[in-house]
Design a protein that fits this description.
Elements (H helix, E strand, L loop, with lengths): L3 H13 L1 H14 L11 H7 L5 H9 L4 E6 L14 H11 L3 E7 L5 H4 L8 H16 L6 E5 L5 H10 L6 E4 L10 H12 L5 H11 L11 H11 L15 H16 L10 H4 L2 H13 L6 H11 L6 H10 L14 H7 L1 H11 L20 E6 L2 E6 L23 E6 L2 E6 L9 E9 L3 H8 L7 E5 L4 H4 L7 H10 L4 E5 L12 E6 L16 E5 L4 E4 L3 H6 L20 H6 L20
Parallel strand pairs: 1-2, 1-3, 3-4, 9-10, 10-11, 11-12
Antiparallel strand pairs: 5-6, 7-8, 8-12, 9-13, 13-14
């Protein structure tokens, strides 16, 4: 039986979304065609659509009696997470052919890495790449040649963008296909230590580079629990992965068999058979709540306080930060994965992984089991794990108890009674904070503001010794409209160093922090942003700011009268609007919704009332 509070919040989301969801479902049902999709195309259309196919494929596609499956991929060979996808299309086509169907590579989508662009001008494109990926997905599918699709994606903005684009073709079944994490490298605690020592000037660049190379050393996603691995958890929690497929390492026999099985499964669930499972029926209000619950139970990426909002909106579902915060108060923290612990994602997988997580959440009624997924009869089937029995892929019941209680806990004895994500409110606006890695003694800070408009200025002030005191660092003009909302991950080692020296330090920003946000209390995604009239634009150096996680307060301790009399600060943002392609995203900055609306330039501006 579902937990009463989870049921209540789900019902509230359903009511709030009634009109937008009904409109979305009506559009998907209107797009449905129980014949093969390509049957509506003219002879000229079809000839163009399969001109490059072999004779056997052309014969199959002309017959109009079998499915044609689209492959949408984020493959590139510069980035470790996406490189494994190079071999997937061949595996998929082989498996689909054995099912009596065909598959075509319908399109590629861009895939950029925040790890490469951290602190660089290219980071200003990162968030907007999500909506670009959504549009690229739609372009690939717009030929109307396909009866189902496989989405190949892993990392930060790629999976949300793929799902947003896929939901425009929600009348088709979609299966999401991960590549898996790289094998474990340098322990996360050691990596964090060396990064911090470099920030303090104790080790040189050679030591830092060797540390990073030892950490990120092979094909697959980074092994810490940031946005990339949060994506994989979400896709499985929302029923779009095959059970247990999220965290199997790339270039292994099991990974290849799971890829083939995904291709086979999408053929089974098209509208041409008896087990039609379109995406629009898989992703509904309950699925979105399941995703949020799984994210909170594992201390996942704060970036999903925007991505999940945008993904939900693409399905006609309206969620906001109150939903996240109230669910967080209900859902216990069940994992310790770096940066919320020392274990990496491979350790989590070995300790019981997704099957154990689902077993715990289902047993406590914290997650909806009665949902449609791409395989099985509900989320209970996701308590199974994939194995190879010889060369045959099978699923067995997953473990019933944690194999490492320091990494995966139980609902009856969690690491924390809540999910560690809080909504902060006050005269500065609305903000989110991730506290699963923040010590209790650091959850309340009241101190003078140190105000900058560029994260690089924090390094300068750190080097000058200006930050060696209790303070609240304010980094503004970082929001979607100002400069595309880059991550401010460069601040983490600097502020962490101050915290370790015994200073009380906090961060307030209308920008983002990494999906691996850690021990420094950081009020992020502040909305309204500075450029759009947010009170953060009126903060002056030395103003006292109170950040209180326990009460949910974010207060600028300046009188209303004085604030009304103050002029908002301005910033020269022109240098941030050109170079590295940023000049082409002016329209995106102008159209972007606020952070709580998903920061989308596709539909963020119409996401409805917040709060």
């Amino acid at each position: 039986m579902i937990n009463a509070r989870i049921a209540e919040i789900t019902a509230r989301i359903q009511e709030r979304s009634r009109d937008t969801r009904a409109d979305y479902v009506a559009r998907m049902e209107a797009a449905r065609n129980s014949k093969v999709q390509r049957s509506v195309l003219s002879c000229g259309n079809l000839a163009h659509g399969f001109a490059a196919c072999g004779a056997e494929e052309k014969d199959s596609l002309k017959m109009m009696d079998a499915a044609n499956i689209a492959i949408i991929s984020s493959y590139n060979d510069m980035l470790s997470a996406h490189q494994p996808f190079e071999s997937f299309p061949a595996l998929i086509k082989e498996a689909v052919k054995a099912m009596g169907s065909t598959a075509q590579f319908a399109g590629g989508v861009p895939a950029m890495c925040d790890g490469v662009t951290q602190g660089q001008p290219g980071m200003d494109l990162s968030l907007f790449s999500r909506d670009t990926i959504a549009m690229a997905t739609a372009v690939g599918m717009s030929h109307n040649m396909f009866d189902g699709a496989l989405a190949l994606g892993v990392c930060d903005k790629i999976v949300p963008g793929l799902l947003m684009g896929a939901l425009s073709f929600g009348h088709l079944p979609w299966v999401f296909v991960p590549a898996g994490p790289m094998p474990s490298g340098l322990p996360n605690k050691e990596k964090a230590r060396i990064r911090q020592e470099y920030a303090e000037g104790k080790v040189g660049r050679d030591a830092l580079l060797q540390c990073e190379m030892d950490s990120y050393h092979g094909a697959g996603t980074c092994t810490f629990y940031g946005t990339a691995n949060s994506n994989q958890l979400l896709m499985e929690a929302m029923g779009l992965h095959l059970p247990g497929s999220s965290f199997i390492n790339p270039n292994t026999p099991l990974r290849d068999e799971l890829t083939k099985a995904a291709a086979e499964q999408v053929c089974r669930i098209t509208d041409l058979g008896s087990d039609y499972r379109p995406l629009y029926k898989v992703i509904d209000e309950k699925a979105i709540v399941n995703g949020i619950v799984a994210l909170l139970a594992t201390g996942g990426s704060t970036n999903h306080t925007m991505h999940l909002v945008a993904m939900a909106r693409a399905a006609g579902v309206i969620v906001n930060w109150d939903d996240f915060s109230e669910l967080s108060d209900t859902v216990p923290l069940l994992t310790r994965i770096y940066p919320n612990g020392s274990a990496d994602i491979n350790h989590f997988q070995a300790a019981g992984g997704m099957s154990l997580l689902f077993r715990e959440l289902l047993s406590a009624g914290l997650i909806h089991g009665d949902v449609l997924t791409i395989k099985g009869e509900g989320l209970a089937d996701y308590t199974a794990e994939p194995f190879l029995e010889g060369d045959k892929l099978i699923w067995r019941d997953g473990p019933e108890a944690s194999l490492d209680p320091e990494v995966v806990a139980t609902v009856s004895k969690p690491f924390s009674s809540n999910g560690g994500l809080r909504l902060l409110k006050g005269n500065l606006g609305r903000s989110v904070i991730k506290v699963s890695a923040v010590k209790d003694e650091n959850r309340v800070i009241e101190g003078p503001a140190i105000v900058v408009h560029d994260q690089n200025d924090i390094q300068k002030r750190f080097d000058a010794g200006d930050l060696s005191r209790d303070c609240v660092v304010v980094v503004r003009f970082q929001g979607p409209a100002a400069m595309g909302m880059p991550e401010l991950h460069k601040l983490t080692p600097l502020l962490g160093s101050l915290l370790d020296k015994g200073y009380k330090v906090g961060l307030v920003t209308d920008g983002r922090m990494s999906g691996a946000s850690g021990k420094v209390p950081a009020a992020i995604h502040l909305t309204p942003e500075a450029l759009n009239g947010g009170m953060i634009a009126k903060v002056q150096e030395g103003d006292i700011i109170r950040l209180d996680v326990n009460t949910g307060e974010l207060i600028l301790k300046v009188s209303d009268e004085e604030l009304a009399a103050r002029e908002a600060a301005t910033a020269d943002l022109k240098p941030y609007h050109w170079g590295m392609g940023r000049e082409m995203f002016g329209a995106a900055r102008q159209m972007a919704g606020g952070a709580e609306q998903g920061a989308s330039f596709l539909f963020g501006y119409e996401a409805g009332p917040q709060g």
